[in-house]
Specification:
With 215 residues, this protein is α/β, with parallel strands linked by helices. The protein is 38% helix and 23% strand. Strands 3-2-1-4-5-7-6 form a seven-stranded mixed β-sheet, with helices on both faces. Helix 5 links the parallel strand 2 and strand 3. The N and C termini lie far apart (54 Å).
Amino acid sequence: MKAFNQDLLRQQLAQGMIDLQQEVSDQQLDQLISYLALLSKWNQAYNLTAVRDPQEMVVRHLLDSLSLLPYIQPKELLDVGSGAGLPSIPIAIMRPDLQVRSVDSNGKKVRFQVQVKAALKLDHFDVTQVRVEQHQPQAKSPQIVSRAFASLQDFIQWTEALATENARWLAMKGQWPEDELAALPAGFQLAESHLLQVPGESAQRHLLIIQRQTT
């Protein structure tokens, strides 16, 4: 595994945020790099992600997650199947005004997220260990995100009970998922689609925003 060069990674991330046209404070850069350092350290023992190279992590985890920022609405975000806290933790760092909730069924990954929450003092971030389809939150969410978690059909069906009436489902995908869109559950429609330009990433990235059909 390549060495964790904090200065190099910070420079790479700062340039990536410029390319994304996102303002980032020195404190937020420090927090994002601290998150990456924890991820890299835990990954050696717990295999949280297949990506091992820290520079590749900046692109495929941090900048990929943060390419979502222009499409996030206020108040609250629920991240399902969040794994190591992606995209929820980078978004929570960049959006301290947002209540960010994370759900995953993997105990090691949830414990990692709890450690990050404590280390970075992310009071507006919460994580719950539970299978998504068994989750019973106190309140429903207005926007639900998934990143390479499941098919669009499963994503909607497993989380429909967790969503407010006018909720938005934000599905981060690679190539355009024609077959998945054709299999959307009845009563749901593609409201928006965006080609995400992730600095340093050559593969296609799409954001699909799904909503209930209005009568």
